[in-house]
Amino acid sequence: MTRARRILLLGGVALAIVGMCHGAWYALFAEHQALDRIGGSLTLAFQHAADQDIAAASVALAAYSEGKYIHERQVDAHGHWIGLAMLLIVLGIVFDRASFSEKWKLPLAVGLLIGAAAFPLSVLLQTFSHGSIPRALSVGSSALMIATLAVTALGFAYNRSSS
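Above: the chain's sequence. Below: its structure in token form.
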């Protein structure tokens, strides 16, 4: 088995485990509290709106928005880690069919693994900071994934056309 295939297969399995562990942790220890906060803040917003207390309703809506933002990113990170892990595993199975030398396959495999690990992590970092660093990491890691997937697709397309 080539080093590139090993990186994709083992990296994919490792990312799937990370994604499943994160999902299990979130579901068992954090999601119910998060959903209670989201529902409670929305209920409070409606109560304040019915009382025509616009300032308090705005504060409660802001709390709802923040809770929803964090919940979505937690779920997205879990899903992206597992989805990208499955993609790495599938690519690892067929990677030798791409028409690249090992000199090119190894950096592509490393780039795919880095992008697949960094993108969900950057999504999680956005729950701690809404600043530009986690967003830039998100953009950079997704761009890395897109670029390496595009080059990989070209390798498969070239191999198919040359056969």
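The chain is about 90% helix and 0% strand.
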